[in-house]
Every structure is written in structure tokens, then in C-alpha cells.
Amino acid sequence: MRIKINDRIPDFKYQSAFGKEGHFYDRPQKPFTVLCFLRFMGCRFTQYDLLQLQKHRKEFQAANAEVFAVIQSPVESVKAHFAGNPPDMALLCDPDSRIYQAFGVFPAKSLEEMQGRYFSEKLARVEAAGLVSGKKEGQPWQLPAAFVINAQNQAVYAYYGTEAADMPAPEKLLAAMKQK
After folding, report:
1. What is the CATH classification number for the domain harbouring 40?
2. Which end of the chain has fewer beta carbons closer than 10 Å to its terminal beta carbon, N or C?
3. What burial letters (b/e) apply to 19-50, b meaning 16+ CB within 10 Å?
4. Residue 180: its pLDDT value, please?
């Protein structure tokens, strides 16, 4: 089932890469929570999207929003990638894709679907940033998604990517908060 605007999002148990675990509904309540579903740590698009979220962290903080990213990689891979310098957001490890499935975030059906209209443009930005591919983990054709959730655990913004490179920019997520 895909989440739509005004839907109550499902609660889920999570394991953070950097020590926290619990139920999503038990997180500190802020007016907004950004929940991004990315691919795996070795994916350069995932690395790029995390860098973009981190680059806008002060804007998210100013909006009194918490940022979570769900990643297919296990805890060990995420820790190794950041080598003791974790980003200022919660990275939730979901190597079994339980959270992805609960939110209806599924993989593409083909390689052609993975590499659509945004792929080349984003790949150029990824290469300009000097990001390097790493170990492939999880579902190799996993698609991204992003949600902005209010304090009542309702989606005020829901976006399902149509290809690997199709992740909304942080500015779009911030704009969704301003509209509510």
C-alpha cells in the first residue's frame, strides 16, 4: 500500500546505524519529520542525497524538523562508510526491506525503469562530487521515496521515485513544510 497525503503512516521498529533503536512513533515529537527512503551506502545516488540533506540541515533545524533516512545497508556498512563521522540525521538500517514494504517503496521492474529521464543529469552531479561506488547491498533495483510527516504521524507530503535518481531535493521537502 502506498502512502498518500493525509494518510497516517505505519509505526515501525527501527535500528539506527549509530546506536539508537525503537519505534518510529516514539521519536521526539517535532512539528515535522522528513523520512527518506534511499538505496544502499555503496550507491552514489544515496551518498549524494545524504550529502544534500546534510547540506540543508540548518534549514531543517530552523523548520523544527527531524530528518531520518532509511537505507538497505546493514549497520556495519553504514558505520564503515562514515568512519566515525556520522551525519546529523538518523540513518535507519533496513537490510530486510521491512520498512520499505510497509511504506510501499518497491524496486523497479527493469534496468530501463532504473535509468529514466533524471539519471544522466544526476549522474553528472554525482561524478562532479567525486563520489565512488561501493558494495551493492539489498535490492539492487530499489527505488527511492520521501515523506514529510506531521506530529500526528500523517503524511503532508508523499513522493515515490520513478527511477534510481528520482529523489526530491531538500528544498522541495522544506517547501512542503511551509505549505502546512
Report:
1. 3.40.30.10
2. N
3. eeeeebeebeeeebbbbbbbbbbbbbbbbbbb
4. 64
